[in-house]
Amino acid sequence: MIHVSPTTTAPRPRSLFRSLYFQVIVAVIAGIAIGHFWPQAGTALKPLGDGFIRLVKMIIPPVIFLTVVTGVAGLSDLGKAGRLAGKAMVYFLTFSTLALVVGMLVANIVRPGAGVHADPALMDGQAVASFAAQAKAHTFSGFMLNIIPDTVISAFVSGDILQVLLIAILFSISLSHMGPRGHAILSLFKQLTELVFGVVRLVMLAAPIGAFGAMAFTIGRFGIGSVLDLAFLVLTFYATSALFIIVVLGLVARYNGFRILPLLAYLREELLIVLGTSSSESALPSLMTKMENAGCAPSVVGLVIPMGYSFNLDGTNIYMSLCALFIAQATGVDLGLGQQISLLLVAMISSKGAAGVTGAGFVTLAATLAVVPDVPVSGMALILGIDRFMSECRSLTNIIGNAVATIVLARWERELDTKRLHAAMAGLIPEEEAERPIIAGSAENA
């Protein structure tokens, strides 16, 4: 790993117009304007956003596979990888549950649905029928079995993150047992990693175009007015997510030797891409690179981030508990403490069972509501029009939670270069280094 001296000076700033951060901001603003003033034109730009997300999804499987193999196979102690995975699961379950509790507490205190007075009999149940059907189809046991792909190749074809992760771990274990004979293969994989991350940088050049098309479609299709109709719920959700990030994740960050606001500034490009595309997957390859450049060991990044994308969904969990109680309040259903706890327990499971499903947040909400018959699933029609706007906040909170988890777990494993972490957040790593993935060497112990 490249170490950064405390005396390293700040790199010379490049042109603002060449900054991906600036380009995405301009693209998002332009997309909002097109969608608002020319809705039909904005809706027609949907393929731009879809195309960018497909480009990113295309490159995710090889990124995960190569990152995990080069990281884990390079460890002298495979038991260390097992301990890391165990610690990661404990961390994910703890903070996912905490996110559910935070959403439930805010819903009971603020009561965003108390003044809606919606009649379930007048709602269009057909509008959410497909989501309810998906919720029944995706059980926790089915999710666990789906981790095992039909073939090695099918995992890469489907792009399922956990399937690719499983194959990568098996290959890593086998490669590590080959001894000196595996060195040539590991060296080849490291060169392929550089090649793949070069492709990632090319794909990210299209991020402003993707953000422009996705934002234009969202505003053109649903309109800003759809947000204003249920503005209090949207604001409550965004405020609750911000509270969770600043207070809960902020305290976790402070306890582990870094601050949350510099981390958000460091990840500003990734956050803007997620905001524009409403998909956290669109920033997954770039997030992995940023975490390695910030001093987290590749073995930690390769395991924690792919697992986190399925098990560490803080934003989705806040959304589920908050919206479930919003629908109950809006339809006049008074849920007791026992029923709310039942909702929370089911949400803990359903959020894992529908991981990776398109529209997962809405699907898991349907599965959660099914456990309490008193709450009409048709009440989801209330938030159908604004779900797209709320998905942006879900994705932002999810990616921030996974970034924090990666740094924390790297520190726990003594695989965090703290000097490089603080230098990266202070903008002291030269641009040419920040764009190159770190694929060899060990991190300085924290």
From TrEMBL:
Q: Which keywords describe this protein according to UniProt?
A: Cell membrane, Membrane, Symport, Transmembrane, Transmembrane helix, Transport
Checking InterPro entries in the record gives:
Na-dicarboxylate_symporter, Na-dicarboxylate_symporter_CS, Na:dicarbo_symporter_sf
Q: Where in the cell is it found?
A: Cell inner membrane
SUPFAM superfamilies xrefs = Proton glutamate symport protein
Provide the GO MF annotations for this entry. Answer: fumarate transmembrane transporter activity; malate:proton symporter activity; succinate transmembrane transporter activity
Query: In terms of one coarse class, where is the protein primarily found?
Result: membrane
User: What membrane topology term does the record carry?
Assistant: Multi-pass membrane protein
Keyword check for Transmembrane, yes or no.
Answer: yes
A Gene Ontology biological process in which this protein takes part is: L-aspartate transmembrane transport
Q: Which GO terms describe its cellular component?
A: plasma membrane
The family line of this record is: Belongs to the dicarboxylate/amino acid:cation symporter (DAACS) (TC 2.A.23) family.
What's the protein called, per UniProt?
Answer: C4-dicarboxylate transporter DctA
Q: What is the lineage of its organism?
A: Bacteria, Pseudomonadati, Pseudomonadota, Alphaproteobacteria, Acetobacterales
